[in-house]
Amino acid sequence: MSISVLGLLVLGLALLVVGADLLVRGAARLAAAFGIPPLVIGLTVVAFGTSAPELAVSLQAAASGSADIAIGNVVGSNVFNVLVILGLAAVVAPLSVHLKVTRFDVPLMIFVSVLAWILASDGRLGRLDGALLLGGVVAYTIWSIRAGRAEGKALAEGVRPARSRRAVARNVFLVVAGLVLLVLGARLLVEAATATARALGLSELVIGLTIVAAGTSLPELATSVVAAIRGESDIAVGNVVGSNIFNVLCVLGGASLFAPSGIEVAPQVLAFDLLVMTAVAFACLPVFLTGHAIARWEGFLFLGYYVAYTTWLVLAAVGSAALPRFSGAMIGFVLPLTVVTLAVTTVRWIRRRT
Length: 354
Known about the structure:
This protein has twelve helices and four strands. It is an all-alpha fold and 354 residues long. The chain is globular and about 60 Å long. The N and C termini lie far apart (58 Å).
C-alpha cells in the first residue's frame, strides 16, 4: 500500500469520526426541540443522511454501466449494517430496542428485502421496478415523520418543547456539517480501498459487496457506535434499520430508475447474496424480540457471521479448494447451532411473557 493511499485512509477515518459525532449531537438535540422521538430521527434523517454515500456510488455505478458495483454496494451494505454495525455497537454497549422497531420497522425491512429479491428474480431491475421502490421510500418517510410527531406530542402531554431559532439553526448546522464530513470521509476511504482491491485483481461484484459496501457503510458504523457510546440506543438501532430500508427503496430504486437500461442482476447475486441480505433481515426479529435488546453475545454472533460471509466471498473469488469444506461446516454445523440458540432464547422470552 502506497503512502498516498494510506494517507487517504487515515484522513477518511478522521472525517468519519468527527462527522459522526456532529451528526449524533445535532440530530438528538433537534429531536428534543421539535418533540420528535430520537428513534424517528434515527430512522429518517440520520439513516438517510448516512446512506448518502451508497446513493452516490450506486447512481454513478449504474449510470456508467457498472451494474455489479451498483447492486453489490446495496446488498453488501445491508449485510454490513446489521452484522458489523449493530454487532459492534452492541459489543460496545448493549442496545435497547424500541417496541416500534420490532413491530413495524424490522418487518418492513424484511418485506423490502424480499420484494427486492422478487423484483430481481427475472435477472433485471428495470425502471418500473425502480419507480415502485422509490414510491415506497416516499410513503415510508411521510408515515414515519407523522407517526413520530404524534408520539412526541403524546409523550409531552401538551408541554411544548422549549427551543430558540438560534439553537435550532446551530443544531441544523451540526447535522449538515456532520453529513458533509461523513460523505467526504467515506469517499476518500472508498477510493483508497477500491484502488487497492483492483490492484489485487478482484471482480467488480466482490469489490461492491465488500470494499465499496463497507466503505460506504462507514458513516453508519461511526454514527451508530458513537450513538451507542453516548447512550442514544434509539439512534444507533434506528440508523441501521432505516439505512437498510433506504438502501433498498431509494438507492437500489434510484439506480434502477436512472440507469440507461435498468440494472442487470448477476446469477450469483440472485442465488446467494440477495438471500443472505434477506436472511440477515429475518435474523433481526428474534434477536430484537428477546428482551427488546441486543446483548453483547448477540453482537459477537453478528460479527462472527460477517467474518464467515466475507471469507466465503474471498474463497469463492479466488476459486479456493477450501470453499466446499468451509461451506459444509457453515451449513451443517454453524447455521443449525445458531438457529437452535435463537429459537431457545425466543421460546424462553415467550414463556416469561405468558
